[in-house]
Amino acid sequence: MEPAQTIIRKLGGPSVVADLLGVHRTRVSSWQRSRKTGGTDGRVPQNHIPALLAHARAHHIDLAAEDFLLVEQSGGTRGRRTSKPDRQRADSPTAGKCILLIIGGGIAAYKSLDLIRRLRERGAEVRCILTPAGEEFVTKLAAGALANAVFTDLFDPQSEFDVGHIRLAREADLIVVAPATADLMAKMAGGHADDLATAVLLAADSPILLAPAMNPHMWARAATRRNVAQLAADGAAFVGPNAGEMAERGEAGTGRMAEPLEIVAAAEAMLAPAERPLAGKRVLVTSGPTLEAIDPVRYIGNRSSGRQGHAIAEAAARAGADVVLVSGPVALPDPPGVNVVKVESAREMLKAVEAALPADVAIFAAAVADWRVAEAGRQKLKKGEGGPPTFTMVENPDILASVAHRKAKRPKLVIGFAAETANVIANAKDKLKRKGCDWILANDVSPQAGVFGGDENTIHLVSAAGVGSWPTQTKNEVASTLVARIAENLGAKP
Ligand code: CTP
Question: With 162 labelled, which of 11, 47, 192, 487 sits at a CA distance of 20 to 30 A?
Answer without folding.
Answer: 192
